[in-house]
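Q: What would this chain look like folded?
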Amino acid sequence: MAAGLKLISHKLCPYVQRAVIALTEKRVAFERIDIDLVNKPDWFLAISPLGKTPVLQVGDVPIFESAVILEYLEETQPKPLHPADPLRRAEHRAWIEFASAVLNDIAGFYAAADEATYKAKAIQLEQRLARLETRLAGSPWFDGDSFSLVDAVFGPVFRYFDVFDDIADFGILAGKPKLQRWRKSLAARPSVRTAVSAEYPALLRDFLDRRNSWLSGLQARAAAA
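A: My prediction, written as structure tokens:
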């Protein structure tokens, strides 16, 4: 039941955003509790075996891992975000896993310590997204006219590029018109837009600064220009 749902969160976590978007789309009331992942409180470690966000507290039961949380919400809440057909539903689940791989590529991109690694990670990320371009339906959501969980998990992916675009033109999304249209549709979706606070861009820029990575240096030079 929806009553008493608590989502343990971090302000920058893209996996938290997935859950927030799904909850918002389903119009499920919940309490969001942000924590500091650098200084994790003991109560959080007691309910999160992996020490990661998100955790959905359902009464006395903590549900961890974003993919599991999304499936739980699909099974217990109205307004399904998965297709009804079992085969299409399985395909959507596979692309949700693909989104997690893209997030790992993004992390490798912003954490690269030197130019050579940074360039290699940029190529890897571009190739991953080029593969996604070939699958998109092209209007306006991942698989056509209905917003799905795949859309929910890619909203946080493209949000990174809002900040990346202020640093430089990396060309990662160039030549991908379907991705560009999808990105715009997601950015305009209320559930995606409100999954983070207004301070998100500044928090992400600060996070990138503190990585002391190659991208950190590019960001510093862009800010000084």
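The chain has two domains: 5-76, 86-224.
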